[in-house]
Amino acid sequence: MRVIIKDDSADCASWVAGYIAYRIKSFKPTAKKPFVLGLPSGSTPLGAYKELIKLYQNKKVSFEHVVTFNMDEYVGLPPQDKNSYHHFMYENLFNHINISPKNIHILNGMTKDFAAECENYEKAIKTYGGIDLQLGGVGTDGHIAFNEPFSSLTSRTRIKTLAPSTIKDNSRFFDNDISKVPTQALTIGIGTILDAKEVIIMATGKNKSEAVHQAIEGNINHVWTVTALQMHQHGIIVCDKDAASKLAPTTVEYFKSIEDRVR
Ligand code: GLP
């Protein structure tokens, strides 16, 4: 695992955007061999999306041959709902870059057949040869995508009932009214995430410090599903100092010394 500790969320955002652009460019994607990018929603990746838009505007990266798969979507919210992840992605990224609509994949939370929707999503990812780079955030309870505590670490795309902690955290987007937050979501699984060739998890702010501590220093377990990243050969955690504040000083020193030597 690589751990990148930056001063603040803005530094995390530019590092992540720069890394994604670098990966896309070095892949030299074509129509026949597109770069497959897994994307999250939530407030954490917003800065990275802004930076990616700037990189695109400055002609430093093109999304012409990039295919995306979003991690998750609420059940029961239509794409035009301002809280749907469809809406979030178009507003904050897709409307501002040269990605082709046919290359965008987001789970349909309005489907009548959840099992078929999830199975087809897994199939579609496979059709493209898997996800090259999966970006994610993490919940305060350590969930990634909507793989809530006690999710199987081999889970695939499926419907999940949301944990009370997630409903409470996400109620800030729903007028702070927990009764307005959908209780279920469709989400890629931990197994789906671990199949990606590379995974970056971003975490910023003090409220993510326990999740970061568990992810890096805790044991692999299904309570803090982010700990599954420890089983990935190319996992990267990018966090700011606040999110890293519960790490042991020796852990911070170790990862910083490695990054200093890589540079
Ligand atoms: C939601 C999303 C996750 C996201 C998490 C944290 O539950 N399904 O993908 O990582 O929220 O969100 P935020 O970045 O807003 O803290």
Textual characterization of the structure:
The chain is an alpha/beta fold and 263 residues long. The protein is 34% helix and 16% strand. The chain contains eight helices and ten strands. The protein has helices at 9-27, 46-57, 85-92, 114-127, 164-170, 190-195, 209-217, 249-262, and strands spanning 2-6, 35-39, 66-70, 72-74, 104-105, 133-136, 158-161, 184-187, 199-203, 235-240. Strands 1-10-9-6-2-3-5 form a seven-stranded parallel sheet, sandwiched between helices. A three-stranded antiparallel sheet has the order 4-8-7. Helix 1 crosses helix 2. The longest helix has 19 residues, at 9-27. It is globular and about 50 Å long. The two termini are 17 Å apart. The mean pLDDT is 97. It binds 2-amino-2-deoxy-6-O-phosphono-alpha-D-glucopyranose.
Helix and strand pattern? EHEHEEHEHEEHEHEHEH
β-sheet strand percentage: 15-25%
The portion of residues assigned to helices is 25-40%
How are strands sequenced across the largest beta sheet? 1-10-9-6-2-3-5
Distance between the termini: 17 Å
Number of helices: 8
Could you tell me which ligands this complex binds, including any ions or cofactors? 2-amino-2-deoxy-6-O-phosphono-alpha-D-glucopyranose
What does the largest sheet look like? Answer: 7 strands, parallel
